[in-house]
Amino acid sequence: MNKTGVRIEARDVFKRYGPVTALAGVSLVVEPGSVTALVGESGSGKTTLLRCFNRMVEPEAGSISVGGRDLSHVDPVALRHGVGYVQQDGGLLPHWNTRRNAGMVPWLRGDPEFERRADEALNLVGLPANEFGARWPRALSGGQRQRAALARGLAGRPDILLLDEPFGALDAITRVDIQRTFRALQSELRVTVILVTHDLREAFHLADRVAVMKSGSIEQEATVAELQARPTTDYVSELLDKAGAA
Ligand code: ADP
Ligand code: MG
Q1: How far apart are CA 171 and CA 228, in angstroms?
Q2: Alpha carbons 81 and 65: distance in angstroms, whole number
Q3: Pocket test for ligand 1, best of 38, 47, 163, 218 (most atoms within 8 A of CB)
Q4: pTM for this entry
């Protein structure tokens, strides 16, 4: 499944919902094959920004590009076939077994090998396909469900992977386990990843760079080491203190 990700860029992106400004002029670059974590309190605009990259959200102003292509010129359906997306609750379809769920993107694309791609992805995320492929989502544990959701994100061999708090609801031990899997597969696959998390320590553990969001803006965007050493705003310092990571 070797493949290297593409560059992602947002430039001066604005998005409002009625009176609420969800994104107040956000710019962000994610280099090919790297992982950027979006961190910030609830309502700071993380999910909205993430969804701009697969056109589930259309910015009102500003531009988004993936692999050098301006997304306003790209068909959203075709785009989503090249973008892995894991939504907050995993979003597995309950009446589809794990293999069908995992193979959804190649299946939508009309790829006759969708089952093989599903099994490959399931094996990759630590859910042996021969054991788990035929199971219903309800017969999986929370951690296994998130692994299956991750497999679905990867089975279409995406250039970019958008993860919305994928490990947020898991207990600590399961979480560490799945984080380890994520690191191992990312070092092999080198997809370009944007990972939303409200856990700064998770961001430090999994990401190359961290963007701290507050009220629809990016407060600071830096490498993990730089953010830890030199927070540029009081808000970022406060977050570091709270995470016990300063
Ligand atoms: P986060 O993911 O950081 O919690 P969101 O991007 O989901 O934040 O939301 C940012 C802001 O936009 C919040 O105030 C939220 O209530 C608002 N918002 C998000 N989606 C919608 C929507 N579909 N309709 C109305 N308001 C929305
Ligand atoms: Mg969110």
Answers
A1: 26
A2: 16
A3: 47
A4: 0.94
